[in-house]
Design goal:
alpha+beta; 6 strands
Length: about 190
């Protein structure tokens, strides 16, 4: 299985950036600072921040895979769509339909174990009149329960590693639960 791997990391500049949604990955059940939750990973390409001609600048955000009224994922969906969803619409909403959509991201920096990292703050719809260039990144919609054992090569290696810890991925891929690991280790996010 060929997977994308980052060799070096330089965080994008802080501030507001036009972006496009490039990945939605359902990570299965994970442990976070908020407890045991089904989580997902959303990835965005900052379409006007390109450190060189080869590599698009991408950032991501973990969140609970829930469309409940107060859930972060629902807030993100409603922000990008520019309108609230009814509860019925939220229950039926396919997050994969966000792929390729333009949005605005507020980026801050956070000091961590591995140096300074970009943190996605507020996500909003694109202001009227602002053109958001197309992303160069191939979009990815991957669900660990439904999409088979091959993790797409566009999924960053660290996300693939998190994904493979979930009981859903192990079960869907006939690997069964790891007897020494009832619950996957924590990932950052909500």
């Amino acid at each position: 299985m060929r997977r994308f791997q980052t060799t070096s990391y330089e965080p994008p500049p802080t501030g507001n950036h036009p972006a496009r949604v490039t990945s939605y990955v359902f990570l299965g059940t994970q442990t976070s600072e908020f407890g045991i939750r089904k989580q997902c990973w959303l990835e965005f390409e900052l379409v006007k921040v390109r450190p060189d001609d080869e590599t698009p600048t991408k950032v991501g955000r973990f969140c609970t895979a829930s469309m409940a009224k107060k859930a972060k994922l629902r807030e993100i969906v409603e922000s990008i769509q520019g309108q609230p969803l009814t509860d019925a619409e939220a229950r039926r909403f396919n997050v994969g339909t966000l792929l390729g959509k333009g949005c605005m991201l507020s980026i801050t920096h956070k000091e961590g174990e591995n140096g300074i990292r970009a943190k996605v703050g507020t996500i909003t719809s694109v202001p009227e009149g602002l053109e958001v260039p197309e992303a160069r990144t191939v979009t990815t919609d991957y669900d660990c329960e439904e999409d088979g054992p091959e993790i797409p090569g566009t999924v960053p290696e660290f996300i693939g590693d998190i994904l493979m810890r979930s009981p859903q991925w192990k079960e869907a891929n006939d690997r069964g639960p790891d007897p020494d690991d009832d619950i996957p280790p924590s990932v950052e996010g909500e």
